[in-house]
Amino acid sequence: MADPGLRTQQIHNTKYAYLEKGVEMVQLKSSAEIVKMQKAGRIVAQVFDALQEIIRPGVSTYELDQRAEEVIRGEGAIPSFLNFGKPPFPGSICVSINEEVVHGIPSKHRFLKEGDIVSLDVGTILDGYQGDAARTFPVGKISPEVAQLVKVTEECFWIGFEQAKAGNRLGDLSNAIQMHAESFGYGVVRELTGHGIGRNMHEDPDVPNYGRKGHGLRIVPGLCIAVEPMITLGKKEIEVLDDDWTIVTADGKPASHYENTIAVTEDGPIITTKVDL
Description:
single chain, 277 residues, alpha+beta, Creatine Amidinohydrolase, five-stranded antiparallel sheet, four-stranded antiparallel sheet, 28% helix, globular
C-alpha cells in the first residue's frame, strides 16, 4: 500500500547519518525476521494467482476483495488493509481501475469492463510480519498504448530492484525508476511513495519513485522496503476523491502500479512477495 502524505519532501539527511552511525530510526531485519516476511509475502503472491483467474468483464470489485480475503484468512493470515488508517479502509485489498492510481475501495456496485486495467494492492500479516505487493492486470483486450504503460511500470520495478543492493543509496534506486518511466514520456507520481516494512505496514524509510543518484539512505543488509512504481500515462499530478482514500490522476488518464517487498541481504536483494520461498 502506497504511503501518502508528502513525507518524501520532509526527509532530512540527518536521518541517514543516524542509521549509518547505528541509531535504529530505520529498523533493520534479521535473517529470521526476513523468513517470516517471506511467509507473509507468499500469501500475497497466492492472492494474485487466485484473482488473476477471475478477472474478467462483469466481475465486481467486491468479488475480487472477497476472494482475496478468503485466500488470506485460509492461510491463517490477516488482511493488512482492512480497517487500516483514518478513516478506516473498508476493504481487504485496494482495487483501483483505470485513472485510479491507488487505494480504490471495493464495491458491490462497480464492475470491471472490457478494456479496463485494474490495479490490485494486497497486504497480509502473518506471525506479526507484513507482506505487501501490487499488480496491474488487463481486463479483456486493452489498447496497445495502455498495455505499454503496464509493461513499462513493471520494468520500472525491476530496474529499481537491480539498484537495491548494499552500498548503493536509495536515490540510485529512485532515479533508475524515474529515468525509465520518463523516457517514455510518462508521469511519475510524487506524493505517494514506497516505504520500509516489517512488523508495521509503513516504516521508515520512504522510497520515492524519483530522485538523484548518490543521494539518500545508504542501502545495507537487513533493510526491507516495499518498492512500488506508480506511473501515469499523462501528467504526474493526482487528486483525492471524496471518500478520502481513492487517489486518481488529475487529468483522468490511466495509471499503473507494480509493487513487491524487497529484503536486502549480504548476497543481494530478494523478493519476499512470491510463491516460491
